[in-house]
Amino acid sequence: MTQSTPSSHDAPHDIAALAHDFATLGQAARLASTTLALAETAQKNRALEAMATALANAQSDIVQANAIDVRQAETSGLSDALVDRLRLTPQRIQAMIDSLHQVATLPDPIGNITDLSYRPSGIQVGRMRVPLGVIGMIYESRPNVTSEAASLAIKSGNAIILRGGSEAHHSNQAIATCLRQGLREADLPEASVTVINNTSREMVRLLLQSPEWIDVVIPRGGKRLIERVTQEAKVPVIKHLDGNCHLFVDDSAPIDMAVALTVNAKTQRYGTCCTLESLLVHHNIAAEFLPALHHKLDAHDVEIRGCATTQTYLPAALPATETDWYTEYLAPILSIKVVADLHAAIAHINQYGSHHTDGIITSHYPNTTTFLRAVDSSSVMVNASTRFADGNEYGLGAEIGISTDKFHVRGPVGLEGLTSQKYVVLGHGHCRQ
Fold it and tell me: Sign of torsion, CA 414 415 419 423?
């Protein structure tokens, strides 16, 4: 069930009472997770389809709730990028509905046994996919995450406790109503999905420091949120920091293709973690490529901050600072650096990047393989926009986040990323000698 604790907007809370409330939610989620682990695929899919239907029927209510959040966000001075993440258009609501349908069609990983083989003793040993248990998720701005996270958790047999940001409060609660209806119609435990209606810092602390109820925490938001979660958590964390994404234009790159990919990666949507923030250009192609790119970016009012060499080709560019190379702008701003060669580009990316998504535009195969092997990022693109770094685009149906860690999952986190494995041993009365 999507459940709520008392809202922090109502009155100050006694910490002990809040801890009691959270323990109650945690116990219910833990019990629900044991039922979900045994649920048949058809029952989980039935819940997802019912959630999709409920969202479709409640579109006007969701739009109205979201409008309240957007107005409050604009009044409070939230950045344009965050307001964009917050806004639910009819198209984005339809994308939520489509995602639920798509996750329902994906293969169910739970219970799959792989690598089954006979040992010399006669036993068979294999590995079975199992749920993680109870997932805690803390996220900001994007209310569509509420639906996407719930769908992936249910399909992978996990219960989930969701704590969204105060800026999306009304939107999240409207979506939560639809999720609750879907669970009821599929006769799944109502505590399978809990949407917390409390935005206090103490609630975040409880979520991070309750290993008896929470098996893993997934933060999704700004750098400050991720850093706090990493520092305070007493449970495992699947995380990513900011998305300082790069493209490198090799000297063998076709100019028209390089311009088109750069413009798409930068301007298709500014407020996402896979949007292009820094462009690296081989010095041999800079004189021809940069003026052609500038003409296209000008049409989108993109501000360019460039190195000294970039400014010689683009006099209108502002001087880039050391800070610019580290910055995730989430805005119509692009930093550009002209580099000596492929290896200089790789060194720059590995030093300044956030290990999220980086790409190369080239027609030289050896450079492709070198770039793929040397760039230390969760997604590496060849002749494609960084905007493809997305669970849905990768065929995962949806994503609960994009991990830049190397354990336990890396890149967009879909169904398999929300599972673990256990060894299974099959015998026929075998005794160890």
Answer: negative
